């Protein structure tokens, strides 16, 4: 039976090769584990500047039919990236109490710039999914870097905002006593404070919420990351829920690659809305990344007001990322 299973699974080539850059971190490790458990992954390439040989050896003992390899330090980036189809990037410094995501820019922008440059060099056709904060600025950093290399494909660059979506489902579910897995709330615009705009009016299934419930839920979703940072008291930001959210997004990307129909997730991608060049909207995923950007859902008056507050902040975040590479 064992040998049957093994020989049956030699169709590995039809599956997906995924690299995690920042694989030894608080997010990187559980995210890598969830990807190791995903049957769509055929090869898992773990890269970090620290500890990857041990993390990869540990994960490689899990009895799944995928190959796990490790690379440590910039000299091994070529080996980590060559042949990869999806690259997830959770490398970088997390928040400490009192910090905003924007405060991370000075440490993390250069990490994202250099890693994305290597992706552009060694696996230019890969789909890139960025976890590193501030996502609102790091995605433009990545885009400008790929443009510099002449390999930018806007269909293949994603900022992961899935944590906002799972939080929205959880908090609505808690409030109404409904299984959160049955609830979907689109969350649009960006991934920091007021740029996180939950679209409660399009919640599926339709759930009756009062204006004050919507306001409270919106504030909680916008500040949920900060809630975790405070409670972790200096030991970092969300890691476990983020790893789960990241694995859901990468799973969706891989199902798109495999040609599964109707795979939709919200993500922060190139999309011009009111002159903000990047924007999180629902995306239909396909073999080459974005199959179709489904655009903004219908918005209530309150949601349009939230966007009015968010757009100037988002535009500033985007410009900061672009200027970092261009000047
Ligand atoms: P962590 O400090 O636990 O791990 C970061 C890892 O990145 C470390 O293993 C470190 O060695 C590695 N690293 C640093 N520089 C690197 C480089 N040049 N190349 C490769 N690896 C490098 O941090 P944690 O908690 O895993 O957070 C990672 C990032 O994810 C942070 O920027 C954080 O703000 C962000 N984040 C994003 C969320 C989202 O919803 N998109 C949610 C939560 C955190």
From TrEMBL:
Keyword terms, alphabetized: NAD, Oxidoreductase, Tricarboxylic acid cycle
EC number of this enzyme: 1.1.1.37
GO process terms (BP): malate metabolic process; tricarboxylic acid cycle
Source organism superkingdom: Eukaryota
Positions that bind substrate: 95, 101, 133, 167
Domain Lactate/malate dehydrogenase N-terminal intervals: 16-159
EC primary class: oxidoreductase
PANTHER family from the UniProt entry: MALATE AND LACTATE DEHYDROGENASE, MALATE DEHYDROGENASE, MITOCHONDRIAL
Homology family: Belongs to the LDH/MDH superfamily. MDH type 1 family.
Subunit details: Homodimer.
Protein name: Malate dehydrogenase
Organism of this sequence: Nezara viridula (Southern green stink bug)
Taxonomic lineage: Eukaryota, Metazoa, Ecdysozoa, Arthropoda, Hexapoda
